Amino acid sequence: xxxxxxxxxxxxxxxxxxxxxxxxxxxxxxxxxxxxxxxxxxxxxxxxxxxxxxxxxxxxxxxxxxxxxxxxxxxxxxxxxxxxxxxxxxxxxxxxxxxxxxxxxxxxxxxxxxxxxxxxxxxxxxxxxxxxxxxxxxxxxxxxxxxxxxxxxxxxxxxxxxxxxxxxxxxxxxxxxxxxxxxxxxxxxxxxxxxxxxxxx
Length: 201
Known about the structure:
The protein has helices at residues 38-45, 62-70, 82-90, 97-106, 136-146, 184-193; strands spanning 110-111, 125-127, 151-156, 161-165, 170-174, 178-183, 198-199. By secondary structure, it is an alpha+beta fold. The chain has a single domain, classed as SMI1/KNR4-like (3-Layer(aba) Sandwich), CATH 3.40.1580. The relative contact order is 0.21.
């Protein structure tokens, strides 16, 4: 994987599947500290994207917005997150306003994308923490190693890879190694446009 890589791999296979190679290759082989809310982080990080925006007021590039809208998203979308909150609480994850705000807007979306991306293949994903029932320990262990609380939030490429989010809203690729994209809207841009995450461990 390109970019700065700090490798300390953990030999723990993916749930009942062969451990996959880096995504996009096309082959298969503690209490949470006080955090700002989702809107507060979006205001501080900025949400407009320079690459072919839908309009001057768009949060996303046209390609990203098109993919999200095709999956059922709209800027006004809000869904009930009670079952995900219960899942987190039952699994030992403390409530977090940033993660809950993200799920309220994007939870339940299945984004069907494919083909070449900017740096890696574009792969379908679904935002639904309950899909990772049974994988909580994996996320807790990686969170401890990275010094964050790592919440399971969904699956990439139909469960060949897992998606996580920390308390700051940064998006993670999680298997028996971990890589990170940017936070919140920018993280979704990275994922949908096919940017490579930075491998952490």
